[in-house]
Amino acid sequence: MLNEYEATIGGAMLGVNINKAKEARKADGSPLEYGLKYHLNQMRSHIDKGIPDRADQVDAYLSRAEELTNLLTEWLNSFKDQFVQYNDGDAIETIDICESMLNEYEATIGGAMLGVNINKAKEARKADGSPLEYGLKYHLNQMTSHLEKDIPTGNDVEAYLKNGSNQVNLLKEWFDSFISNFGKYEEAQETINEVQKILDWHESKIGGAMMAINVDRAINARRADGSILEYGLEYEMRQLQSYVDKDVPVDSGKAEEFLNKSEGLYNNLNEWLQGFKQEFSKAEEAQETISNVENLLNAYKLKISEVIVEVNVRKACDARRADGSCLEYGLEYEMRQLQSLVDKDIPQDTSGADQYLEKGRNHVNLLEEWLGGFKENFGEFVESYEVIKRVESLITDYNNKTMEAMNRINVNKARDARKVDGSILEYGLEYELNRLRSHFEKDIPTSSDDATTYFDQGNMISGNLKEWLEGFKRQFMSLVEAQDTIYEVDDLLFEYDQKVKDSLNAYRVQKAKDARKSDGSVLEYGLDYHLGIIKSMTEKGIPEGFGQLKDYLEKSSNIVDLLNEWLEGFIEQYGGLTEAVETIQEVQVSLDEHIGLVNDALTGYRVEKAKNARKGDGSVLEYGLDYELNTFRSLLEKDIPEDVADAKPILKKLSNIADNLKSFLKIFKEEFGIYEEAQETIVLINEHLSRYEEYIQPRIISFNIQSAIQARKADGSILEYGLQYHLNQLIKMTENDVPTDTAPASTYFEKGDDLVNLLMEWLDGFTYQFVQYDEALSTIEEVETAVREFKQHSGAAMNEYKVNLARNARKSDGSVLEYGLDYHLKQIESQLESSFPEDSTKAKFYVESLEDKIDLLKEWLNNFIDAVGDLEESKDIVSEVEEIISRYNQLMQDVMIGFKISQYVQARKEDGSVLEYGLDYHLNKMNNLLDQDFPSEGAAADVYLHTLNELNTTLQDWFSEFEVLFGTFAEASDIITRVQSLLELYNSKVGQEINGYKVVKAREARKSDGSVLEYGLDYHLAQLEKLLDQDIPTDVNRAKSFVESSENMKTSIEEWLENFKEMFVGVDEANETIEEVETVLQKYQNVTNSIVVPYKIMLARNARKEDGSVLEYGLDYHLNSFKSSIEKGIPQNVSLAEKYLADVSTTKTNLEEWLAQFKESFEKFDESKETISEVETALEEYKSVIGAQVVSYYIERARSSRQGEGSILEYGLDYHLEQMNKLLDEDLPSDTNKASKYMETVSKLLNLSQEWIKSFTEKFGDYQEAQKTIDEVKEVIEKFKNKIGNELGKFRVQKARTARINDGSNLVYGLDHQVKQAISQLEKLVPTDKKKAKGCFETVRDTLQPLKEWLDDFKDMFLEEPAAQDTINEVEDILKKYEAKYGGIADILKSDIYQPVVISSGGPSSGVHGKIPKFQSISEQVL
User: Fold this and answer.
1) Cα–Cα distance, 771 to 1300 (Å, whole number)
2) Phi, psi of 160 (to 5 degrees)
3) 197 exposed, middle or buried (CB, 10 Å; 0-12, 13-18, 19+)?
4) What is the pLDDT of residue 1415?
5) Which end of the chain has less neighbouring CB within 10 Å, N or C?
6) Average pLDDT, integer, range 1345-1369
7) Cα–Cα distance measured from residue 568 to residue 566, given in angstroms and rounded to the nearest whole number
8) Which of 1288, 1303, 1289 is nearest to 1242 (CA)?
9) Half-sphere exposure of 1165 (CA within 13 A, CB side)
10) CA dist., res. 496 & res. 142, Å (int)
11) DSSP β-ladder status, 1395-1397 and 1412-1414
12) Cα–Cα–Cα angle for 1309, 1312, 1314, nearest 5°?
């Protein structure tokens, strides 16, 4: 009844409501005083009257126009909200009438309104809110009059400039506001240019004078005026100059006073200069002052720097504790104290030696602390080198003298240390060693409790000793004096371990087996108890009932998890012990047998559990599978109403259930798809889903498409009033001419852009959802056509608008240029045309200011190209800007490069150079040193060589950078020659001495200097030789300490030698040192080979994963396990077989990798042969025993594997072949739909068969055992080809023709649609009008490009297929016709003639809408 009522009365009611809205007055709640018709008549009358000629009537006219427009716009928005959704003819006509009126109003009155507002802004006075007292014209006249006057001299100039500055500030304030409001309109440009001209005139005439006055003020300002300088700049500079001209007093006190006063002047001037530069660095008038002050400051620094260092070095040496030094009475006193100890003999008694060493260490610590601070402050200065060398030499003399005594005392202290001294040993080493000796001399008790006590006590003592020894080695490993202690402790621990090892291992294994939860085990009552339970469960077998099965499986799962966790921990701790092997095997066998039994029953149980699971159990189905299927079936059997509103809830519910079932099926198949127990359930769900997709899915799709088209913003769409409304808006704009006036054009383009962006964004979402459905194609094509036609209609005008907008944009509009491109180009051209300054200060200013402008221009150009560079209209502007940049680059090359080189050469450290005072100073200093004779005295020679080396290194760094920057310029050749000549002189005169000096320094360097050797080369070589001269152990088990100590020393020396060789490659002076070190290393090799190689082989065999080995528990464990597995062979149970093969394969791979690494390290040694043979024998046994079984096993697994097990076949090969054979026995259906489904199935099965056999052949084709399977599959494939080859070819060709973009084709809607478009285009005439020809050519490109690509792909797939020839001929025929009509296909598709662009919301990109080429130029051939 309601539906009938709606159908009968609803339409009439809508018409009544529309008329009521149109007739409503203000009293009825409408914004229109007397209804729509009256309001439209008022607007028509207003337009027809036109703008009054009298100025005093214009304001009232325009105010009324604005009022009428606003009221109608408000009414129209409300009307659309109520009625646009109904697509009613009367409502749409009303909307069109109103919008036409508003558009006409805008076109007729909008431009006039703009002109009036511009004039109002120009005429506005202060009383109207303008910053200009009497309007723009008056203000410009005042400024013109002011600028035409000459700048006065004397006291009048300040008032003149102040007045001009006030006027300019007011004008700039007005100008910024005017540009913000009207800058984008053509009508305002004349005013903008007029004001800009006045501002530029003021800047050029007054700016410099004002700047000169301000600079002069800053120079003359005194402290009373706010300056940091007491009496102005000139006075302060004279004061500092007098200090530069004086000699520094020799007397220390007077020199300090001299430095303090001059430094105060220097700091004041420097601080003043920084402030001055911050304010005036860009002002040409300030450059001379900046240069003069900088020169004076640099002259002071140059003269005073060396003196300051010398005075301060002297002060630092003399300073006492009272002066802040760490030395009580100064450096000389502290050095005399230490020297006196160096000259004395070290007392032989321990107490006296301790006192001697403690006293010496105190002096050394103080001197080292002092020297660290001294180096930090003065280490870079030559004046400090002699002091540093004296102190370091004295410390070295002391260390060399006391080293052995200190080592011996420290070793004895560590041995004697007790717990109270921080040692881990309660009463020192001797006591603990005696305890362990006493302990292992006793017999091991036979009773379990006594044995436990014996082992616990022994483990505690030996553990403490091992921990103590590790710490002792870390501290003293490299000391010869420590070796006896290391051997003593190592030997005793080895003897103890050897005695108790077998008994202790068996004891530890048994203890782990007996351990309960209370002892820290994961097993509640020990291993035997839990192993008994699992064996009992395996013997009893699986119970029948589901409830009992559930309890059984849960209990099984818990105990299996516990035993696995226990076994993992047990293997990790005891896996390498022979005594543990039996236990490990027992547990693994019990677990394997039980898991093999349980797996089959577990599958059925898990399948039922998954089916019954509800949402609360983690399922996607609310009440389990049966409930969901019953509900689904019930809804499927009902009739679906035709009415969309009535059908919506039923379709939504069906869709939700289908989605849930699909999600469930996906998860279910992933988990159980390979099991037979799950197949019935999978088939049942698929049957329900197939029925849904066949009968219900099309209704839902159609419903969803219509909903998407009609949806508004309130429904979640991005379109305010649905698709049709917005399309109509765009189509109307396409039908109207593009406005020529700036303001309407701006509105037109903005509105068009917004509409296109909205529609394309909507279309992206719509296409993503529905492109694969035929019902959506007409909508997609309709939107794309509307957008394309609008783009073609407005393209050229819009491009020009965008380009001009970018060109004129100012900083306030987001541009990087303050006043737009033209102003900026004029500024640069003016500077380029002016002559290059000869004065260096002015030249620097010229270069820097021009560089800043060019950098801004380059940034603008990059932004411009990113925004509109693809538009033809932008090309002239790009060329114009690039020409200016090219002129600048030419100037750089012709004139400015010499200036740049000069700047680089003069640059100091504070300017970013590596040279402290510029190149000339650096070269002169090096020349002066090279002219001197080589000093004969050691310290002086060191200082001389160090200074020259530092100067040479710095000059090399500078020169490398200089050559990179300027090496190709002729202007740099003189400087390059000067530097190269000096470097050659340096190498010829002091090259050898420098090398010798560097070699000595490298030998002496300690860890604190960056060396890898703690105390320098000589000390470490002596230590290693001393160790090698001792007797070495002969038992490999006792060699650990000797090998670790000697190898530690050897490794450090080898690393040092590598660094040394790298540093002195090709230096003859280094050869002697290299030979010396290599001789000692060869001695190490000769002495240690007999013990080191066996020891390292033992380590390699025993190494576990934590030690870096690939074997988890060492070689012996894995080799024994591997051999045991080979003896057992492959189990019959599938799951156990999989685990067995995976484990054996992993072990085999690890053994092969271990053997390869072992051979790489030890194969050259005879001692390795036994180990290599042992491993290779085991690997050969695997190959002969397991290899043949593995091939057959894996072939069978490949045949039986299902999709969830890595196969592409759903249920394995046998099932797959059975399905294919069934199809072979069937006749090809005569019904078209059934035949299509038949061919689809055959095609899928054939593709899977071919892919499977290809993969199978790659893996097993070389094995005889696989041939039967290969022949079997190929035979079935061949039968199919013989039976239905032609029909199948036709089917696959047809599928390729109909494939769309979602199916993997490059054609959005398939071949037939594309061909239809192509034929339609061929039937059209080529337009002669340039704009229309452009659109025609775009369509040609849009049609041809994807068609040609599709044909190439199609030929690759079907060239040999007879059924494909008609299709190939069809497409090639179309392409030939295009060639005949438009020219060569290759020419049409050339990228240098046309650039493809895709319509989208953000500009050119690629998408599913096809390519819409952007026209650039049309060749005569095409026209």
Assistant:
1) 8
2) -60, -50
3) exposed
4) 28
5) N
6) 84
7) 6
8) 1288
9) 17
10) 111
11) antiparallel
12) 60
- Smallest CA-to-CA distance from 1184 within 1134, 1126, 1131 is with 1126
Contact between 256 and 249 (Cβ < 8 Å):
no
Q: How far is CA 712 from CA 74, 76, 666, 776, in A?
A: 20, 17, 35, 18
Cα-based distances in Å from 929 to 302, 719, 936, 986: 17, 83, 15, 10
Report the mean per-residue pLDDT for the chain: 81
- Three-class DSSP category at 1397: strand
**Pair 722, 84: CB distance under 8 Å:** yes
| 1414 beta partners | 1395
Separation of alpha carbons 868 and 860, rounded Å: 12
In the numeric block, which tokens belong to residue 1061?
Answer: 């060789």
Distances in whole angstroms, Cα of residue 1401 to Cα of each of 21, 444, 597, 729:
36, 89, 64, 17
Q: What is the DSSP string of 1263-1325?
A: SGGGHHHHHHHHHHHHHHHHHHHHHHHHHHHHHHHH--GGGT-SSSS-HHHHHHHHHHHHHSP
Provide the 10 A C-beta neighbour count for residue 98.
20
Cβ–Cβ under 8 Å, residues 611 and 625? yes
The whole-number pLDDT of residue 1394 equals 34
Nearest to 918 by CA among 263, 288, 295, 259: 295
What is the chain's percent helix, strand, coil content, to nearest 5?
A: 80, 0, 20
- For residue 947, give the H/E element and its range: helix 938-966
* Radius of gyration for the chain, computed over Cα atoms and rounded to the nearest angstrom: 48
Q: Is pLDDT of 892 > 80?
A: no
Give the pLDDT confidence of 910-941 residue by residue, as tens digits: 788 888 888 888 888 888 888 877 776 566 66
For residue 1348, give the nearest of 1380, 1320, 1376 by alpha carbon: 1376
Return the DSSP state at 1016: -
Point out which residues pair with 640 in neighbouring strands: none
**The two three-digit tokens of residue 894, written as one number:** 């012709």
User: How far is it, in rounded angstroms, from Cα 60 to Cα 955?
Assistant: 81
Task: Give the span between the Cα atoms of 1337 and 761, in whole angstroms.
Answer: 26
**Length, in residues, of the chain:** 1423
Q: Which two tokens stand for residue 1023?
A: 């230590």
Is the CB of residue 549 less than 8 Å from the CB of residue 601?
yes
Q: What is the per-residue pLDDT for 1422?
A: 28
Which pLDDT value is given to residue 1072?
92
Give yes or no for a contact between 23 and 68, defined as CB atoms under 8 angstroms apart: no
What is the longest distance spanned by two Cα atoms in the chain?
132
CA 10 to chain centre: 61
Give Cα 62 distance to the centre of its chain. 58
Q: How far apart are CA 1155 and CA 1175, in angstroms?
A: 7
Question: Helix 36-49 vs helix 55-83: angle between axes, to the nearest 10 degrees?
Answer: 150
Tell me the angle at which helices 840-868 and 821-833 cross, rounded to the nearest 10 degrees: 150
Query: pLDDT band at 1341, cuts 50/70/90?
Result: confident
pLDDT in tens, 207-245: 666 677 788 888 888 888 888 888 888 988 998 888 888
Q: Which of 540, 440, 421, 564 is nearest to 498 (CA)?
A: 440
Residues 1228 and 362: their CA atoms lie apart, in Å, by 105
* Contact between residue 1049 and residue 1027 where contact means Cβ atoms under 8 Å apart: yes
The DSSP secondary-structure symbol of 282 reads T
User: 1336: closest CA among 788, 871, 759?
Assistant: 788
Q: CA separation (Å) from 18 to 80, 307, 1251?
A: 11, 100, 66
Identify the band that residue 860 occupies on the pLDDT scale cut at 50, 70 and 90. very high
pLDDT tens digit string along 281-317? 777 778 888 888 888 888 887 777 667 777 788 888 8
Pairwise CA distance, residues 1130 & 1149, whole Å: 18
> Do residues 146 and 167 make contact, with C-beta atoms less than 8 angstroms apart?
yes
Per the structure block, which two tokens stand in for 231?
């009496």
The tokens for 735 are 């039908």
